Amino acid sequence: MTTNGGFQPVFCTIVPPHVLDKLARNEDPALSRPARRSLEHDAYQRTHRRLTTVIGAPAVAAPAGAVADQPHRTIYDAGHQQDLPGTKVREEGAEPGADATVNRAYTGLGATFELYLKAYGRNSIDGEGLPLDATVHFGEGYDNAFWNGEQMVFGDGDNEIFLDFTIPVDVIGHELTHGVTQHTANLAYFGQSGALNESVSDVFGSLIKQYALGQSAAEADWLIGAGLLAPRVTGTALRSMKAPGTAYDDDVLGKDPQPATMEDYVHTGRDNGGVHINSGIPNHAFYLLATAIGGNAWERAGQIWYDVLTGGELKQDAEFTDFATLTVKVARERYGSGDELQAVQKAWEQVGVRTL
Prior knowledge:
This protein is of the alpha+beta class. It is built from ten helices and ten strands. It has helices at 17-24, 29-55, 100-120, 169-183, 191-213, 271-274, 280-293, 300-310, 320-335, 339-351; strands at 12-13, 73-77, 87-91, 132-136, 145-147, 152-154, 223-224, 239-240, 249-250, 254-255. A six-stranded mixed β-sheet has the order 1-5-6-4-2-3, with helices on one face.
């Protein structure tokens, strides 16, 4: 395991707080009440996360008899309460049950485990076979999903704006990748390093979906959270890596605020310095790289990103230029001076990020 400077775990959600803030101010109680409850849940979990950082989380090891290089999944049901983990409803090797949410969570954990193992030789989130636990049916109409440093948690959504958060497999992969980042580069969750933290999760969340569907870079939709928005919402997903800023344009949610290039970088004190907003820039750089190289994005493009994340040289407070420079370095080391290197350099140039 590569850990940069010791753990400083953070509380990360798939739906940005600025989206829930906007919903919480809506005049329609059907929209505002679930958003307010979700914000309250998130505030509690964020405080719990800070306490865990101070006192330490309990060590979790693979159980006796667990098979090496195989996932060890356990799904719990919170019964619309907030107590974690809840009641155990499915464990590794058990057959699917009647609850589709439980089944999707189980499958999504497995898809994430498989991508990291088969593509990068990584044994679970920590590289050492960490059991994968998830709780479903968290809270009442909870509009989010998160990794709390120890497990995954999924809300059912309010069915007005958001549907069940286990529907998009890339949401599951996104949140679990926050765990991979926690155990490797441990990127600080503020400003550009925080945007990189979010972007890395979007990148690998998308790769997990592409791997599971057998899609090439050209075939992929490059959307994060497709299928999560309710029918009344004018939009396709939470974010678009192909075209940041176009995922939704809705009378309730507003317009997707993500920039695609540094020219439109958003300076804000909200959302930890815009970590869910400015992540669109490195997201777009990865999309440009993957489609320029072609083939399966988890192979060469994903390998470059994975090498940077786990190589031990990425600092916790890294900015876009630092990350971009390392991608050029590892591309040269792994692939020489061929198409991969040129594609990496051009991708960052196209989004306006310098490489040193």
